[in-house]
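Quarterly update from the structural biology core.
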Amino acid sequence: MDVVGIEKAVASRLGCSGCLAGGGWRTLVLLVVALATSAAALFASFSSSSSGRVSLWFSVPFPALSSYGDGGSDSSTSWPTLPLSHAPPPLASPLLPLGPSSSPLATAPPSPSPTAVTLETPPSSAPSPPPDTGGTATPSPTEPANNTINEAVTINPPSSPTEISNAAEVKLPNSLRETDLQLIQAKREIADAPMVSNDSDLYPPLFLDFSSFKRSYELMEKILKVFIYEDGNRPLCHTPVLGGIYASEGWFMKLMQENQQFVVKDPEKAHLFYLPYSSFQLRTHLYVPDSHSLQPISIFLRDYVNSISAKYPFWNRTRGADHFLAPYTTKLHDELRENTIKAVCNADASEGIFVSGRDVSLPETHIRTPKRPDSGIGGRPASERAILAFFAGQMHGRVRPVLVGHWGGRDEDMRIYEALPAAIARKMSYVEHMRSSKYCVCPMGYEVNSPRIVEAIHYECVPVIIADNFVLPFQEVLDWSAFSVVVAEKDIPRLKEILLGISGERYMAMQMNVKRLQKHFVWHGRPRKYDLFHMILHSIWFNRLNQIPLQ
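Predicted structure, tokenized:
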């Protein structure tokens, strides 16, 4: 019925059809018709929803929608949030355990598809709180500060990380992503790993819990996916250094970026996120010689992480807990320091930065031939090792001067030198000394780690580690007592006594174990199962699982 028809009907009903000509009643009738039409449209919106929802057919600014996201800790009702890319959503609540018969795939939330976003009818309106940036994310200068939704809000699946950063993300509170559920299930399976006592590829006595390691490694190969950020300018990022004593970081970066088994282009499928900057390159290009200041490096890392967290939503989902990196300094970024998985050579438990069970102790490897990183490995059999202990090196740090001061040139069995004398080096090189010694002494230098540990393993010499507070590489899975000797710094005067106190049978077992261990500490141009690349990646995977509560 049109407006004129409604007007006549109402006028006839009231018995005053003639009085409408003056215009007063026409105005009233038009007002009534407008109200009736709006009410009908509103009723249609309610009736088209399955649970009393109202479609967002009106224009609403983003901040107003995001205010529905947090009703406070005392609220009995949770509302979906629509966070902007530069306004990070709140942290998810602790992960919940799966039921005994639950399947991660069966219980995972469905993948998003293009759809009009609907919003539960909110309680009485409250002022919108300012976005919680967590000290990291800041609005992009190219984005409008106050976007609005016109007509209906439609979220299309992004085709790239850049597109993700510019789209509103629908996130239900306390929800678990499919990747979260996969990690929970993996942790449960590792805890319930079947007993394994032998293996054709591995030697179980090298491990603290061989069955758990075996199952964890299998699940890593089956499940783990890593997203690598493409952000960052060369040479500070994406430029690995493959030679020298700091080559571990470079080789891991190179092999990670080339990998096709673990690396994914779709970040929504990733369990871990890699920040591919080079600590070596930062030191080379940003550190001012003799300045004794790491401020330029700290500023770069702060700004780099802030740009990542502003551009993408992934850092803000966990405040960096599923991101890993090789940091040089983290003092200017709280979340970088406190939440991320840090893979570091200087794994010093006394400094309060490295956290055992979360961070990864990276082995230092001295690569002399980058084109063949696995060349020159091997040593003499135990019966041909006539030297009891050997060390030669620079007087770095607090331990080496004490070692050389006590043992240097004083005992034929203890070949301890500040530097290998030229007359001795002409007869037997540094490498040949390691291949001919029973024990290779590995004292800390400026930092607790030393490339001599891996060198000793390569040359089948039992490493003697002198570095208090050093968290040994892969000590979450390897039993270092099976193939090495750890000596406290205060016991340096008793070093020969300690070594002679090890029985011949015990030494033979340790020396054979060092040879069996080699495969876990070698880089290859193409990674091999259980090699150094996979052991580092497993430590990152394993320690990420450690941070996920089952209850």
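The chain has a mean pLDDT of 76.
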